[in-house]
Design a protein that fits this description.
heterodimer; A: 326 residues; Rossmann fold; 8 strands; B: 392 residues; 5-stranded mixed sheet; 19 strands
Chain lengths: 326, 392
């Protein structure tokens, strides 16, 4: 057995940990340490995201990350891409505007369950319906972490939260079913234990044209785990290992998660459909003609160019010389 | 240092040069297109919808994109995103939608995003009078989002001015990196009048202040209280960060009282210190006036009739029309209050901008409010009665 190298000793004043982090090129190391609690799964998702980008060979200048508000909402502030930390629930419409204004961008939304599915729920289903070309990574820890452990639309029935101190009586959204029904064209779910699978799914989702959605079940050790007496981060990993079941291609109607119940995982949906922009450009080209270009030259301009070219050709080389002889 | 602001002629493909018979809502869309706006995320609401419809129709031929979002919150937020995608953007709405957008106006102010929003005002509160005129959102536009910040608000009194001020609103937003509001109303929005759109080369447009320096020195913000820092767009390779949290000049969260002071002072001073450059008014007969009627937007067109009648009766009445309502022309009002007997303020609300007039007048002259509950413009008689009262 080979010997482990000794753990380097760092202090917060020491920049060594910034330089030595294997993900340093993807992170704003000058902003470390981050705010997330020990045992939280958000860091795993960020690492998987960075791994996926590394593996995918993307032009990192063309990746934009958008987050909403909350613990996961802080991701945008730590990743070294063009990154935006927006208002609560509005990461998806912000990302929509960003993508449509600059279609060459790969836009990735990383946010939490409260942000994306409660206050931002309407935007989630409409972006899925439009098949807006973006990847949405939802870190689902069943709770509002930043505000202290309140119930969310994904909190399992009967679980305890600070605003349901006698237990949650509401049914939870099954997110893969929700976004599948709304029109998402790539849907996957993993837990934060399954880091390699998350990486692979993020890679696929970013290559997928259209609205791709990845749910990552992730522990909130400080609030959800503690309040429900579910132990620490390691206990959560044990639960995910025991009760996580890979069911690629499962019917999304069957993948809801009960309180500490089985977690169906895998790629549930992967189907082609025109993205919002593809549909717009295709349709307008059929209506207006091949001259149509999004943000491009107008038919009038093209006609003028064409005429200029014809008249230049008619006059021969002299067309290059202006009347002043300059 | 690069030339600032960089003023160029309008891109001809957005300019519908000619003499038109057009309503104010359509003129707003044409003004935006002339100013270089190429992205519009909107949501229908009476009486502003015609602007969105016009933009949707004109977009493909101009080379722009219109998207109808799922609600007003989404539409304003998509516009903020599109600014960081490199486009000039606008949206329009009316009272209820304006209320929904408020939180994001704060984000736009905080991120220092140049954008234009038109509020075609209708009677409120709540659903109120969807098809009838009002000027009831004049304080909301100034104070509606939480926290301290500044915005610019312009008020057109005609379809022609909807076109002209749309261009000006875009120019101001680019110079100061601030959301600029066009506070029109149902009457101006639906009124058809002659609108002259000049040739593109006569329309002066402020280009976005693109950053051109070395990549490693780029900072998305500069808290100098002067104007907006140069911008880049996502995808240009700067890999920058922007947040609605209190931040430093790198755009990184910086969450102390001291950080907030640096940021807020800048947001406030860049407008306050340039108020004289920003503020535009129209005035007549102020030189020897005993009484001044201060009005804005559609109400000015009623007020001017009352002023004419009063002058015919031998009263020395001046006319001051606020084209820029925010920042407020307090120096002008202060100067007038020191030498006139009374200031009469008609407006289509229960007394909003009159509060600013009273503040600036500081008791030096009478201030008479001619308020209204909205739904219809004033009768000139009402304003004339107030002028008579002021003359007593």
């Amino acid at each position: 057995m080979s010997e482990l190298s000794p753990t380097p000793e760092y202090s917060l004043d020491d920049n060594a940990f910034r330089e030595q982090n294997p993900m340093a090129e993807f992170l704003r190391m000058e902003r470390m340490p981050h705010i997330w609690c020990p045992g939280c799964g958000i860091g795993t998702v960020v690492t998987s995201f960075a791994e996926a980008i590394k593996a995918g060979g993307y032009d990192m200048d063309k990746i934009a990350v958008v987050s909403g508000i909350g613990c996961t909402g802080r991701v945008a502030g730590y990743v070294k891409f063009d990154s935006f930390h927006t208002t609560h629930g509005r990461a998806i419409p912000f990302a929509t505007g960003l993508k449509l204004a600059n279609p060459e961008l790969k836009v990735v939304v990383i946010s939490g369950d409260g942000d994306l599915t409660s206050i931002g729920g309407n935007h989630l289903i409409h972006a899925a319906r439009r098949n807006m070309d973006m990847t949405v990574i939802c870190v689902n820890n069943f709770t509002y972490g930043m505000t202290g452990g309140q119930v969310t639309p994904t909190t399992p029935t009967s679980a305890n939260a600070s605003t349901t101190p006698y237990g949650n009586t509401e049914p939870a959204f099954s997110l893969p079913f929700l976004v599948d029904a709304a029109g998402a064209t790539y849907v996957a779910r993993w837990t934060s234990l399954h880091a390699r699978n998350i990486t692979k799914s993020i890679g696929e989702a970013m290559k997928h044209r259209g609205f791709s959605f990845i749910e990552v079940i992730s522990p909130c050790t400080t609030l959800y785990q503690r309040r429900n007496r579910l132990g620490d981060g390691v206990s959560a990993m044990e639960y995910y290992r025991e009760d996580g079941e890979i069911q690629h291609g499962a019917d999304t109607r069957t993948v809801d998660i009960g309180y500490q119940g089985k977690i169906a995982m895998g790629k549930f949906v992967d189907r082609p459909r025109d993205t919002y922009l593809d549909a717009v450009v295709k349709h307008l080209t059929s209506v207006i003609g091949d001259d149509y270009e999004l943000y491009g030259k107008t038919p009038m301009e093209k006609k003028a160019e064409e005429e200029a070219r014809k008249s230049a050709a008619g006059k021969g080389e002299s067309a290059d010389i202006c009347e002043d002889g300059c | 240092m690069a030339e600032f602001p960089k003023i160029v002629s309008a891109d001809p493909k957005g300019v519908l040069t000619g003499r038109h018979f057009m309503d104010g809502d359509h003129a707003l869309a044409e003004g935006a297109l002339a100013a270089g706006c190429r992205f519009f995320a909107g949501y229908p609401i009476t009486p502003s919808t015609e602007t969105a419809e016009r933009f949707a129709e004109r977009c493909p031929e101009v080379g722009g994109l219109f998207i109808q979002m799922e609600d007003e919150i989404a539409s304003i937020t998509a516009n903020v995103g599109a600014v960081w995608g490199g486009k000039k953007v606008m949206t329009v709405t009316s009272g209820p939608g304006f209320s929904l957008m408020m939180e994001t106006f704060g984000l736009a102010a905080m991120m220092e995003v140049p954008m234009v929003i038109a509020d075609v005002q209708r009677g409120g509160p709540s659903t109120g009078l969807p098809t009838l005129t009002a000027q009831q959102d004049m304080m909301q536009v100034r104070w509606g989002s939480h926290g301290d910040y500044r915005i610019i608000a312009l008020v057109p009194d005609s379809p022609q001015e909807c076109f002209d001020l749309a261009v000006e609103a875009f120019n101001l937003s680019e110079i100061y990196r601030v959301p600029v509001f066009i506070m029109t109303d149902e009457t101006v929005g639906h009124m058809h009048e002659k609108v002259v759109i000049p040739p593109a080369e006569e329309i002066k447009v402020v280009e976005r202040n693109w950053y051109t320096g070395p990549k490693e020195e780029y900072r998305p913000y500069k808290f100098d209280g002067k104007h907006g820092a140069p911008m880049v767009k996502a995808g240009d390779g700067y890999r920058f960060h922007s947040t609605g949290l209190t931040h430093d000049e790198r755009g990184y969260p910086a969450l102390t009282a001291e950080d907030n002071k640096k940021l807020l002072t800048h947001l406030i001073q860049k407008i306050d210190n340039n108020a004289d450059k920003i503020i535009r008014v129209e005035e007549s007969g102020l030189e020897d006036a005993d009484i001044v009627v201060v009005s804005y937007g559609i109400t000015s067109r009623i007020a001017i009739r009352a002023v004419q009648v009063a002058r015919e009766q031998g009263l020395k009445v001046g006319f001051l029309r606020l084209i820029t309502v925010w920042p407020f022309c307090e120096n002008k009002i202060r100067e007038l209050a020191g030498r006139v007997k009374a200031i009469v303020v008609p407006e289509l609300n229960y007394g909003q901008i009159v509060l600013e007039v009273e503040r600036a007048a500081a008791g030096k002259c009478k201030v008479i409010s001619v308020n209204s509950c909205g739904g219809a413009v004033h009768d000139p008689e009402e304003i004339l009665t107030a002028i008579m009262e002021g003359a007593k």
